[in-house]
Design a protein that fits this description.
Strand content of chain B: 35-45%
Order of helices and strands of chain A: HHHHHHHHHHH
Low-confidence stretches of chain A: none
Largest sheet of chain B: 6 strands, mixed
Shape of chain A: globular
Low-confidence stretches of chain B: none
Largest sheet of chain A: none
Number of helices of chain A: 11
Order of helices and strands of chain B: EEEHEEHEHHHEHEHEEHHEEEEEEEEHEE
Largest interface: A-B, 20 and 25 residues
Oligomer: heterodimer
Mean pLDDT of chain B: 91
Helix content of chain A: over 70%
Helix content of chain B: 25-40%
Distance between the termini of chain B: 27 Å
Chain lengths: ~230, ~350
């Protein structure tokens, strides 16, 4: 118990002492996971509308594939991305291994199936007759899509939160492709792992606490938007 | 030339043809009631007419031109109201404004029109309410306002009242009837309810088993059904148009083609345009030489037999009493009274057997 209190105290000290190291780690986490989530949303929403609305044969197969993708082990993803980015790998010339971009790629790969699978379910849960009514109101294809996303917004925002959660809480792939380099690719999760390995449990708890607070504010913010009454 | 027409349209679901229409026309300003039992293909017909569903073959013509390729421009000239109100998860005014927003009508113009139609359907006080928090009747009013606000050239109503309770349905039919008269929008009104079809339809198309079996005025369809099956479904009534001449203690005297017919008309007013409905089993035919037998029946009309058609154990006798009238008699009665085409008879029926339906706008 004392360890946890020490951790909380250390967290508060780290945050309020203006320690540059902590803010840098915090910024790295928010930056890579934020960008990875945006990429996952762009790809996931697009794929989900395509699969839910357009794909006729192969739909079940595609949905199953993304459902399986939700359970992709992060370490495996990290390993595959590493192999691709390795100097002698197919994308080696880009020199991306051990950079923030590498972490973004790995986290996006992890978050995309989560966003896609949950978004397909969200779009499919909208009454198909409502889609007919929207078309009957004279909506273009683009306008129909926007209306459909509005109708499914509560579930789509849940999908976004799940995607962000998968990205920011991930550590296996981040360490494999990022290398946990101080001042560059160290995130809140990889910093926590490092501190625990060094035996600095209070600092480890402090990083975890900061991570929880970050998740609380981001997810809380999205939940606030999600639960608002429909705009008039 | 008709405003909207179908030619050689065929629709199949899962290899089975569910709709086959060689020709169907909707004229400008008219209400075409499509009457048919459940599973007749009525909703499919509406969806094909509104081009929400592409027929396997055939074409939809609007103002004489086939509608091909991109249907968006056409969809923006028509409006559809479904059986379920299908409101968006947004406020009532956003729902009613949605179609206008799609058409790029913005700002004050949109607000003005939305408010006008919410007001006309008596739901202006619900404008800020969520569309998902309404009663069935309120939601269907909003759905109707959402269609009328678009000022469509053709309006499709797919059983819009069937999910509502009777009082709500009657109130809404009254309002819709007035709205259709005011706007004179060409309308396709789909229903399985004969009374609704009679109330709103200028013409009636009977749809059974995916085929249009008969199209005509209410009098034609109900008075002379094309075949036994249609006759069974529509109930084979005499239906003729008339105008209320006087109303005395709940009994209305209606002028039908120059003849006075008495019927129950509590809610009627002098001058109302009405449909006089009479079931064949309520009409008694008598030989002319017997004269008028004193009974409690109020209506006695001299008539001439025009056609005799077997109908199960009975005979359907169509007579001309200045207007077409149908009676159901036994074969024995026919022999006893010598009823043959061309014979003169007296048609007798009680005022209480006469059902009066006020026509829209009347």
């Amino acid at each position: 118990m004392e360890l946890i209190f020490d951790g909380v105290e250390e967290a508060l000290r780290l945050i309020f002492s203006g320690d540059g190291y902590v803010y840098e780690v915090l910024f790295t986490s928010l930056y890579v996971s934020g960008v990875a989530t945006l990429i996952a949303l762009a790809i996931g929403f697009g794929l989900a509308s395509l699969i839910a609305l357009r794909l006729a044969p192969g739909k079940t197969l595609a949905v199953s594939a993304f459902n399986v993708g939700m359970a992709l082990p992060p370490v495996t993803v990290g390993l595959i991305v590493s192999i691709l980015l390795w100097r002698s790998g197919p994308l080696g010339e880009l020199n991306l291994l051990y950079t923030r971009t590498a972490i973004i790629i790995a986290q996006a790969v992890i978050a995309t199936p989560v966003v896609t699978a949950l978004s397909i379910a969200a779009i499919q849960s909208v009454n198909p007759r409502l889609r007919l009514q929207i078309a009957a109101l004279g909506a273009s294809r683009w306008q129909s899509g926007v209306m459909l996303f509005r109708e499914a917004r509560v579930s789509l925002l849940a999908a976004s939160m799940a995607g962000f959660g998968a990205a920011i809480s991930e550590v296996g792939a981040t360490m494999v492709v990022g290398g946990n380099i101080k001042g560059s690719t160290r995130t809140l999760t990889s910093a926590t792992v490092l501190e625990v390995q060094k035996g600095n449990f209070d600092t480890g708890i402090a990083f975890s606490m900061i991570l929880l607070v970050v998740i609380f504010f981001v997810v809380g913010g999205i939940t606030f938007v999600q639960q608002r009454r429909p705009a008039s | 030339m008709s405003l909207l027409s179908l030619r050689d349209v065929s629709v199949a679901h899962g290899g089975r043809e569910v709709l086959r229409v060689d020709a169907l026309d909707v004229n400008g300003g008219e209400v075409l009631a499509v009457l048919g039992p459940n599973g007749a293909g009525k909703s499919t017909l509406v969806q094909v007419l509104a081009l929400l569903q592409k027929p396997a073959s055939g074409e939809v013509r609007f103002a004489g031109e086939p509608v091909r390729g991109n249907t968006l421009a056409y969809r923006r000239r028509v409006a559809v109201v479904f059986q379920e109100p299908l409101l968006l998860d947004a406020s009532v005014k956003s729902n009613v404004g949605a179609g206008l927003a799609f058409r790029g009508v913005a700002g004050d113009e949109r607000r003005r029109r939305v408010h006008e139609w919410l007001d006309r359907f008596g739901v202006a006080h619900l404008a800020k309410r969520s569309g998902r928090m309404l009663s069935g009747g309120e939601a269907q009013r909003v759905s109707l306002a959402r269609a009328f606000v678009l000022e469509p050239e053709v309006l499709f109503l797919d059983e819009p009242f069937s999910a509502l309770d009777a009082p709500t349905r009657h109130a809404l039919i009254d309002d819709l009837s007035a709205m259709l008269s005011d706007t004179a929008i060409a309308t396709v009104f789909v229903t399985h309810d004969r009374a609704e079809a009679l109330r709103l339809g200028d013409r009636i198309a009977v749809l059974m088993g995916g085929r249009v079996r008969q199209v005509g005025t209410p009098a034609e369809v109900f008075g002379s059904p094309v075949d036994e099956e249609v006759a069974q479904f529509v109930g084979a009534e005499t239906i003729v148009a008339g105008r209320v001449q006087s109303v005395d203690e709940g009994v209305a005297v209606v002028n039908v083609a120059g003849h006075a017919v008495e019927g129950g008309g509590e809610a009627m007013a002098v001058g109302d345009e009405v449909l006089v409905c009479l079931r064949p089993e309520d009409v008694v035919l008598g030989a002319v030489h017997e004269g008028v037998i004193p009974t409690s029946a109020r209506n006695h009309l001299p008539a001439r037999v025009t056609r005799i058609v077997p109908s199960g154990p009975f005979l359907r006798v169509e007579v001309d009493a200045g207007f077409p009238l149908v009676a159901l008699i036994t074969k024995q009665s026919r022999e006893d009274l010598g009823i043959e085409p061309g014979a003169d008879v007296i048609a007798t029926f009680k005022a209480s057997a006469v059902h009066l339906i006020r026509k829209r706008g009347g």
